[in-house]
Amino acid sequence: FYLGALLFALAVSVSSCGTTAQATATTSNGLTEQVIPLSGPQYRTDASYFRAVQSGKSKDMAMAKKVALQNARQELATSIKTDIRLVVENYNSNRQLPSEDVTTTNSQMTELAYSVVNERLMGSALSDEKLFTTAAGEYQYFVCVELNKAELRQALVDEMKRNEKMMSEAEIEDFRKIFDDQMAKSQIK
Predict the structure, then answer these.
(1) At 139, is the secondary structure helix, strand, or coil?
(2) Among 19-28, 59-68, 121-130, which range has the highest average pLDDT?
(3) What is the pLDDT of residue 151?
(4) pTM
(5) Dihedral Cα 41, 44, 46, 49, nearest 10 deg
(6) Nearest 5°: CA angle at 125, between 57 and 40?
(7) pLDDT of residue 53
(8) With 59 labelled, which of 43, 69, 180, 187 sits at a CA distance of 20 to 30 A?
(9) CB of 71 closer than 8 Å to CB of 56
(10) What is the DSSP letter of 42?
(11) Burial level of 137, CB count in 10 A (0-12/13-18/19+)?
């Protein structure tokens, strides 16, 4: 009898190790708080890095990781492109362009910037990962990907320098300042 009870307790503890989140506290109204993987401050966008955390689930471990990486890079792209759009708009509004040139210039710079962002996203770094198995036997993969803001800024400036019609050296310096100001505002606390 004792051996059976011991084996049952061991089986329950082993099967519970594969859950995706561990309960940390139960409140007086019966709610149970769950730990969210990769949720600490080191996984959030800050002054130096854009970051995104996502998960993917599949019966195949490699597919779960692939889905998680795709989801994280898509979230990263959305966040970065929003900030880049603001940088371009702010930069062009400071240049005092004729009104008929503003739309065209915004469009050209945004297209160029998005191209650089898309290229950089493919090389975004995997900063952390966690793998879990569900009760249904699926894999759930959590990943955090990051992209260095200074490297992105330099890639944007390099591409704009290649297109000489787009900016002079003084204009590039203005762009850098506006980029840095926007990146400081985009920190998630």
Answers:
(1) strand
(2) 59-68
(3) 93
(4) 0.76
(5) 130
(6) 70
(7) 97
(8) 43
(9) yes
(10) G
(11) exposed
Residue in the block written with tokens 């990263």: 76
pLDDT for position 33: 85
Which residue shows structure tokens 């100001």? 181
Mind listing the pLDDT tens digit for each residue in 120-177?
A: 998 899 999 999 999 999 999 999 999 999 999 999 989 888 876 667 777 888 888 9
Sequence-distant (6+) residues with CB within 8 A of 178 are: 87, 90, 91, 94
pLDDT at 18: 36
**Which amino acid is located at 148 in the chain?**
N
Pick from 48, 153, 151, 47: nearest CA to 91: 153
Average pLDDT over residues 109-113: 88
- The residue among 167, 142, 143 whose CA lies nearest residue 156 is 167
Q: Are 137 and 59 a contacting pair, CB within 8 Å?
A: yes
- HEC profile for 92-109? HHHCCCCHHHHHHHHHHH
91-106 average pLDDT score: 75
Query: What pairs with residue 34 in β-bridges?
Result: 23
H/E segment holding residue 5 = helix 2-16
Residue type at 84 in one-letter notation: I
Phi, psi of 103 (to 5 degrees): -60, -45
